[in-house]
Design brief:
alpha/beta; Rossmann fold; six-stranded mixed β-sheet; three-stranded antiparallel β-sheet; 15 strands
């Protein structure tokens, strides 16, 4: 397949008509100026070395060189063959709680930032596996569809914050359902990792987990926070202004609900890990996930494009170099060349 990477450079082709118009105006002005000195036929005889066609030839050369350079700037590329690529791995969907309680600082710098750091480190260790990210609070949304583009996965992870889901709560059931749908119809091994403090869960969590298990999906859970809990910071911009309070003015303590997360991991035939200030437990879970048999998966991918601009640059340089040796006066050997006169090709030696 052939394509141009930067099509907007083709607007520069508008310079060619402008250049042509300027050349025509210049030649007309030159002829008009010379005509002031007398009849053009007489003047042309007084300039036997003057060539009418050499300036036109030089113009054509420069116009072609300019066109070639514009094509080079547009970066012509070839490639993009649709190839089948085989890999071995599993599909992993991470469900990350982004409710306000995840801003509690019992795990430094806070629960959410610690979880994001762990996800990035996990991505750095992945090879062949596909990863997707679901964010949830009162609702669940797909932050990153399942992919092997690890660079994109880290970029999307960095953008996660508590404001990304406007509805507060902890809709774990909806997160599981969204993750299951995100896997699509693939038949290879799958796992879901739920990272949350487990508070204020909504919906039929265990029912959704059971439905996922029946589809062959393993569920792991990570509890973010300490059992004694921590207050939820309140921010104005990037400045902390205090802690969240209830209607009676008492500071709300966000405590880890391990019971539900342990049930989910048990039902999902996975593992529950409580995060600590030194470790989130995500690497421990990934080590267990890595023991799952990895199936060979065949994917269709586009091969990379290869740049071909160098050919157009080379053409332009050759034309410009050749143009240096084209002068406006006639070439001597052509001046005396008379193909239609008697003595075809002879040189007139008369003085």
């Amino acid at each position: 397949m052939f394509r141009f990477a930067h099509l907007y450079y083709f607007y520069l082709l508008g310079l060619i008509p402008v250049y042509t118009a300027l050349l025509v105006l210049f030649l007309l002005w030159k002829k008009k100026t010379l005509s002031r000195y007398g009849d053009w036929n007489v003047i042309s005889r007084l300039m036997p070395d003057y060539s009418v066609w050499k300036p036109v030839l030089k113009y054509i050369g420069i116009a072609v060189a300019l066109t070639a350079l514009i094509f080079a700037l547009a970066d012509p590329q070839t490639g993009s063959r649709l190839e089948k690529v085989k890999r071995k791995g599993i599909d992993l969907m991470i469900c990350l709680d982004v409710s306000n309680s995840m801003m509690a600082q019992d795990i430094k710098p806070n629960r959410l930032e610690r979880a994001k750091q762990a996800i990035v480190r996990l991505i750095d260790n992945m090879e062949g596996d596909r990863i997707g990210i679901i964010v949830f609070a009162g609702k669940a949304y797909t932050q990153l569809p399942i992919t092997t583009d690890y660079a994109a996965a880290k970029m999307f992870t960095a953008t996660i914050n508590t404001g990304i889901v406007p509805t507060q709560g902890t809709a774990i059931a909806e997160a599981i359902s969204t993750a299951v749908n995100g896997f699509g119809e693939s038949k290879h091994n799958k796992a879901i990792v739920i990272i949350t403090d487990g508070e204020d869960h909504q919906g039929d969590v265990l029912e959704q987990a059971d439905a996922a298990v029946k589809k062959g999906i393993t569920i792991y859970t990570i509890g973010m926070g300490l059992p004694e809990g921590a207050p939820i910071p309140v921010y104005s911009g990037n400045v902390q202004t205090g802690y969240k309070k209830d209607r009676e003015g008492q500071t709300i303590m966000s405590k880890l609900d391990e019971t539900l997360l342990q049930k989910l991991a048990g039902l999902g035939k996975g593992m529950y890990v409580r995060a600590t200030t030194s470790e989130t437990g995500l690497n421990k879970i990934y080590d267990d996930i890595s023991k799952i048999q990895k199936s060979e998966i065949e994917e269709k991918q586009f091969s990379d494009y290869e740049d071909r601009f160098q050919y157009f640059v080379a053409l332009a340089l050759l034309i410009l170099i050749a143009d240096l040796f084209v002068f406006e006066r006639r070439t001597r050997w052509l001046k005396n060349f008379r193909p239609f006169e008697k003595g075809l090709g002879s040189v007139n030696n008369e003085q």
